[in-house]
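hey can u check if this looks right to u? its 430 residues, i copy pasted from the old doc so theres a chance i mangled smth
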Amino acid sequence: MSDLRILGGTVLCFDEDRTLWPDGEVGISGGRIDYVGPQRGAADGEVLDARGQAVMPGLVNAHTHVAMTLMRSYADDMSLHAWLEQRIWPIERHLLPSDVYWGTLLGCVEMIRAGVTTFNDMYWHAREATQAGLDSGLRTCPAGVLIGIVPDKQAMLERAIEFADECIARAHPRLHVRFGPHAPYTVPDDYMAQIIEAAGSRGVPIHIHLAETEKEVNDCLSQHGERVMEHMQRIGLFDVPVNAAHCVHLSPAEIDILAERGVGVVTNHSSNLKLGAGIALIPELLAAGAVIGLGTDGTASNNNLDVLEEVRLVALLHKGLRRDATVISAYDALEMATAGGAQAMGLTDVGRLKPGYRADVICVDLTAPHLCPGHNVVGDLAYAAQSADVTTTIVEGEVLMRDRQVVSVDQAEVVAKAREAAMALVGRAG
């Protein structure tokens, strides 16, 4: 029998058959799901009472820069390139490894409380970010930033390769490393070719920003005579597994490229709206068969790490834009935040409640007034649930939050240390 049994909840599997068990059970042993179905008889093992709750796969934050919690509300109401060049890049020059550790740990606490079990991170001081993620208990998918327009670009790449090799050798069950070239406008083709070779030879995915702004597309057209996805395909980026953040400005031909090459598209609606970057063509991508996940981006451009907000937004925004209430369903949106996000990141045993899958599970309280009377649990989760409704967060079979209390780290200490680091960082930056 299972080591941990989650009993009595409404179990949403997000499997290929869209299975739902109204009074179900999820069994966990050795960090894996070993049973999903109707409740079994009494037996030994720890029991988690999930009556009155939805039991579902943990949410996947498929694109973020978690340590930017230190810059939350530091640079608001600016366009992307001004935001980067005038505020973000200047302060990031003063980041210490310890800043990234505490900023990442703060974000991990925020995500645990919001039902996120996996995060796909790209940021500076990747070792410290990784350690924070693992210390929190979350499934951690780190990539150090690679920039090809700086004098020490080769040393930066060598460090990234060394870091990737360390992570591979470490073989931690919650650690999934990748390479992180920032974007085509900061990574010239010759440098990108080196990254592609390093990733391909190791079987490590690439995490990159693509086609986030019209400026990026126009600059690519001016420099190369082709649009961003066309150019990336020509230089061989899509010959290795890629999860591409944003993908806002796409032609029909580029949508087909992304779908045909199996690129994991990660849409970040809140960040794109806040920075005035535009709105990704999600209905067209879905129609083409593209793999789509949801991300929050960093908290300097969102300003939170709440994936449930992204679920609601991706469903509602396109209904209004297309004047079509059927264009993205509640289930479609939730699937992007679970199985879709995992698939976009190349995680083949995450994002569904199925025997053999990793035991990343959350419970969501359905008894709150804003979730009554409960006609449709999927609709309630997508359109009415709030991150505060998450009661339990489990990763790799380990309970990180129980009864809304984070138990994997000391939340008060993390908040205090992160606030101290943020104030010191702003002081150093002047």
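The chain has a mean pLDDT of 97.
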